């Protein structure tokens, strides 16, 4: 003999209540409303900047931004690793480190950054230079192309370089005694000839003041990923210049004791307008 359990009145009422609530929810949705809420899309016109420039100048050499988080903020960038342990050059989402001995490697996700500029690069305009050009004349040519010098711009500039001079920084250990006003004029310098590679960087309007580097700031990574650093001088045979215009700017302050107590006594700016 087979016995079947008869549903109780309570369970039957609960079943119909569930159907009624589901119908109310469906009626409340507009016809074009997605069933699942989509994640917010990445803002690709955002210039992300970690650590105010004058904190970096004034011996705030340890940061709390990781490489893993940096990669969620952009796919090109430049800056410096914590304790000045290498120049940061990010190209196509890969964060390279050029250390004081000239060695180039790929940074690990847990590595910390003390200062960085980054964005997701989308080309808005481009042009080619086929005659010999140096850093000064490159800035002149880019200035001719910029729609406005009141906006922010990111650059990917690939080419063949007759020669290039790049700078690094000597790694520091706490307690930090010297700021960038002393370290940069005495920085290690690396030179290369007949080399191909990419300069990545940014332009900030003069009104940026002491928050960031005003004017042009470029870092270089060779195609073979064996040479890189902060661009000081160069002579190039030809260049392909790609430009991304940005109209949103975000800067994030280090959440560290060193930043909270720093005094902005020293002044230093690159002269690259």
From TrEMBL:
It comes from the Bacteria. The keyword Lyase applies. Its EC number is 4.1.1.5. Keywords: Acetoin biosynthesis, Decarboxylase, Lyase, Signal. Residues 1-25 form the signal peptide. It catalyses: (2S)-2-acetolactate + H(+) = (R)-acetoin + CO2. Pfam families: AAL_decarboxy. Belongs to the alpha-acetolactate decarboxylase family. InterPro entries: Acetolactate_a_deCO2ase (IPR005128). The keyword Membrane does not apply. Pathway: Polyol metabolism; (R,R)-butane-2,3-diol biosynthesis; (R,R)-butane-2,3-diol from pyruvate: step 2/3. This is Alpha-acetolactate decarboxylase. One of its GO terms (molecular function) is acetolactate decarboxylase activity.
């Amino acid at each position: 003999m087979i016995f079947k359990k008869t549903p109780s009145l309570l369970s039957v009422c609960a079943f119909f209540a569930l159907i009624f609530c589901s119908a109310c929810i469906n009626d409340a949705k507009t016809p074009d409303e997605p069933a699942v809420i989509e994640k917010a899309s990445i803002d690709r016109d955002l210039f992300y900047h970690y650590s105010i420039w004058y904190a970096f100048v004034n011996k705030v050499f340890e940061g709390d931004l990781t490489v893993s988080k940096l990669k969620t903020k952009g796919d090109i960038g430049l800056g410096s690793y914590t304790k000045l342990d290498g120049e940061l050059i990010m190209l196509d989402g890969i964060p390279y480190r050029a250390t004081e001995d000239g060695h180039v490697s790929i940074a690990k996700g847990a590595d910390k950054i003390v200062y960085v500029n980054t964005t997701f690069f989308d080309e808005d305009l481009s042009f080619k230079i086929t005659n010999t050009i140096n850093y000064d004349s490159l800035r002149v040519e880019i200035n001719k192309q910029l729609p406005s010098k009141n906006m922010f711009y990111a650059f990917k500039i690939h080419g063949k370089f007759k020669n290039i001079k790049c700078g690094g920084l000597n790694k520091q250990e706490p307690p930090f005694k010297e700021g960038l006003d002393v370290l940069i004029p005495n920085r290690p310098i690396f030179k290369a000839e007949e080399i191909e590679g990419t300069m990545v960087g940014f332009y900030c309007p003069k009104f940026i003041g002491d928050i960031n580097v005003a004017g042009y700031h470029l870092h270089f990574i060779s195609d073979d990923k064996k040479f890189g650093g902060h661009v000081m001088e160069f002579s190039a045979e030809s260049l392909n210049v790609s430009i991304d215009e940005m109209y949103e700017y975000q800067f994030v302050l280090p959440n560290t004791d060193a930043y909270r107590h720093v005094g902005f006594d020293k002044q230093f700016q690159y002269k690259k307008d």
